[in-house]
Design goal:
By secondary structure, this protein is mostly helical. It is 49% helix and 0% strand. The chain has four helices and no strands.
């Protein structure tokens, strides 16, 4: 039999109608299965497994930090600072604090130590 153009158009139209009818049936009658069956969408166990997988993925990552800028009190100096002693004194106080030079009171101290030495020699030697 020889196929004509009209026959081809009729077959194509029938095919289109059959496809539309099949698509409509799929939409109106969804396939459902009982809960917790292996063919259902997701069971409670699957949800738990998915949560655990998500935790495992995020284990090595740091938590998302908030993008708040820390408040700084002002410009701070970097590096070490010199120690400041409470009773450190100043360069002007150096003359008062210098005990290396002999003072007039030192002559009395040396005379007393000489007397002590003589007394010690007399008592201990005899």
């Amino acid at each position: 039999m020889i196929e004509t153009a009209a026959d081809r158009q009729a077959k194509a139209a029938e095919k289109v109608k059959a496809d539309q009818k099949a698509a409509a049936e799929k939409l109106t009658t969804p396939q459902t299965s009982p809960p917790n069956s292996p063919y259902s969408g997701q069971s409670e166990e699957d949800e738990e497994v998915l949560k655990n997988l998500e935790k495992l993925k995020n284990r090595g990552k740091k938590p998302a930090a908030k993008k708040e800028e820390p408040k700084k009190p002002g410009p701070s100096k970097k590096g070490k600072e010199g120690r400041k002693w409470d009773l450190g004194g100043k360069a002007a106080d150096a003359a008062v604090l210098d005990y290396s030079a002999a003072s007039p009171d030192d002559s009395k101290i040396t005379a007393e130590t000489e007397e002590d030495k003589k007394f010690y020699e007399q008592n201990v030697s005899s």
